[in-house]
Specification:
By secondary structure, this protein is mostly helical. The protein has 5 helices and no strands.
């Protein structure tokens, strides 16, 4: 499994930073929901954080070179 996922190239400081960012994006709205009065502003902020969390996940999953290959119309293997 690790050989197939190329763990030696995909782990490290960058991976840890992405996980820390995603935990923050999920944790802050969770704490806000527990500690603040729920109103439209709080719900909007929580929704924005959920979108940011999803975007961070999508961006972190794209392998290097895939974005430029897709832009040029090349097949991805």
């Amino acid at each position: 499994m690790h050989r197939r996922t190329r763990i030696e190239h995909t782990s490290g400081t960058k991976e840890s930073a992405v996980h820390a960012l995603m935990m923050t994006e999920a944790g802050v709205p969770g704490l806000t929901g527990l500690l603040a009065r729920i109103n439209p502003l709080v719900l909007t902020a929580m929704g924005g954080a959920a979108l940011a969390h999803g975007a961070t996940d999508a961006v972190s999953m794209v392998p290097k070179g895939v974005g430029s290959a897709l832009a040029e119309g090349k097949a991805i293997r």
